[in-house]
Write a structure and sequence with these properties.
The protein is mainly β. It contains four helices and 14 strands. The chain has one domain. Helices cover 14% and strands 41% of the residues.
Length: 336
C-alpha cells in the first residue's frame, strides 16, 4: 500500500478497513503480458465516431471482449475527508492499491453460458467473481453474490471475500477520522460518515463490485430474470437504460472520450450512473470501450448537522479505478 494524496491537503494514513468497509479492497494479480500495440490517431478518431452495436455472437468481434484468458489490471485510489462549514477541508485519509481481473471460465446458469470474471485482491488475499454474457442487445450480468465461487473455476487456494469482517474495520476507520474532529461534532460527523458508507456500498452492489442478494430487473430487451443490464446496445450519446429496478439504478451515456490510459489513448463511452441513493452533490461515472471496463470515478458527500438541524459540514469520499494494463487474447492494448 502506498501513500495517497489526491489534493494539496495533508494526508494521514487511512486504516485499510475504510477500503474494506466500502468493499473495494486493493487487488493483485495484475497481467504480466506487456501491451503489444498502440492505437494511431486515425484509429482513435474512427473509434470516437458513430455508435457501437456488436453482432449477436459473444466472440472476439463483439463490443465487450468476452474471451477466457483476457486479463486487466487497475489502479484504485480512495480519499475520505471532512469539510467543516466556514473552515478549510480536513486531512485526507486515503490509499492507493490495485485490482486484477481475469476471465477464467464459462459457467452454465439458467440456460446461459456466463463468462466468469475473477477479481483478485492485494491485501488481504481474497477473490470475488462476476458472471457476464453478451448478445446484440447488451452486456448482462448474472445477479449472483460476488463471493459465490463458480463451479467451473476449480479450487483456488485463496479466501473468499468475508463481508462479516467489514463492521469491525468500519469502526476502526471511524476512530482514525474522529481523532481529527472536534469532540462536540463527532456524533453529527459519525452520522454523515455512516450515510456516505451506506451510499458507497449500494453503488458498489449496483456496479457488481460486492456481494449482494439477487434482484430481478425485468423490462429490458435481452435481459433475463435474475440478471442486471451492464450495457445496452447500441451505445451512443443520450442512450439510457435501467441497471436494476429495485433499488433503482440507471445509466445514461453522456459522450465518448479519448482516455489517457498507460501510454495509450483509448476511446471510451462516458456513462453517468444515477440512483435513488444519490445526493444533490454526488456523481458517479464509468467508462467502457472495446478493451473492456476502463475507468470509474465517483464523488459522494454526507451532510453533517447539529441537533438543531444546522449544517456543520460535509463528509466527502472521492474514488477512482483506472485501467493500467490489459492482455486480451488478440494481444492488443487499444488497437481498433
Amino acid at each position: 500500500m502506498r501513500a495517497f494524496d489526491p489534493s494539496p491537503r495533508a494526508c494521514g494514513p487511512l486504516a485499510t478497513l475504510v477500503l474494506i468497509a466500502l468493499m473495494l479492497p486493493g487487488c493483485g494479480g495484475a497481467p504480466t503480458a506487456p501491451p503489444s500495440s498502440r492505437s494511431s490517431e486515425n484509429a482513435l478518431r474512427a473509434g470516437l465516431a458513430g455508435t457501437d452495436r456488436p453482432p449477436a455472437a459473444q466472440g472476439g468481434g463483439a463490443f465487450y471482449p468476452l474471451e477466457v484468458g483476457n486479463r486487466w489490471a487497475y489502479d484504485h485510489s480512495l480519499g475520505l475527508y471532512f469539510v467543516p462549514v466556514g473552515g478549510p477541508p480536513g486531512p485526507v485519509f486515503g490509499v492507493n492499491d490495485h485490482q486484477g481481473r481475469e476471465l477464467v471460465c464459462v459457467e452454465q446458469r439458467g440456460g446461459h453460458g456466463y463468462f466468469v470474471e475473477q477479481q483478485s485482491f492485494e491485501n488481504p488475499s481474497l477473490l470475488t467473481w462476476t458472471r457476464f454474457r453478451q448478445d446484440g442487445d447488451g452486456l448482462f450480468e448474472a445477479d449472483v453474490a460476488s463471493n459465490e465461487p463458480p463451479a467451473c473455476s476449480g479450487a483456488t487456494g485463496r479466501r473468499v471475500f468475508d463481508t462479516g469482517a467489514s463492521a469491525a474495520r468500519s469502526e476502526a476507520a471511524w476512530s482514525a477520522i474522529a481523532a481529527r474532529i472536534d469532540p462536540a461534532r463527532q456524533a453529527a460527523c459519525r452520522a454523515a460518515f455512516d450515510r456516505v458508507q451506506a451510499r458507497a456500498s449500494a453503488i458498489r452492489a449496483a456496479l457488481g463490485v460486492l456481494s449482494r442478494s439477487p434482484v430481478l430487473t425485468p423490462g429490458i430487451t435481452g435481459v433475463d430474470a435474475g440478471e442486471i443490464t451492464r450495457l445496452a446496445y447500441p451505445l451512443h450519446p443520450g442512450a439510457s437504460w435501467v441497471i436494476r429496478s429495485s433499488p433503482r439504478f440507471e445509466s445514461t451515456v453522456e459522450g465518448r472520450d479519448a482516455l489517457a490510459l498507460a501510454s495509450s489513448r483509448v476511446p471510451g463511452w462516458r456513462i453517468r450512473i444515477d440512483s435513488e441513493f444519490n445526493g444533490p452533490d454526488d456523481h458517479v461515472h464509468v467508462w467502457y470501450g472495446r478493451d473492456g471496463f476502463l475507468r470509474l470515478e465517483d464523488h459522494l458527500e454526507g451532510i453533517a448537522t447539529d441537533p438543531n438541524g444546522v449544517l456543520i459540514g460535509r463528509m466527502v469520499l472521492d474514488e477512482s479505478l483506472v485501467l493500467t494494463e490489459v492482455s486480451l487474447n488478440g494481444g492488443r492494448f487499444a488497437a481498433h
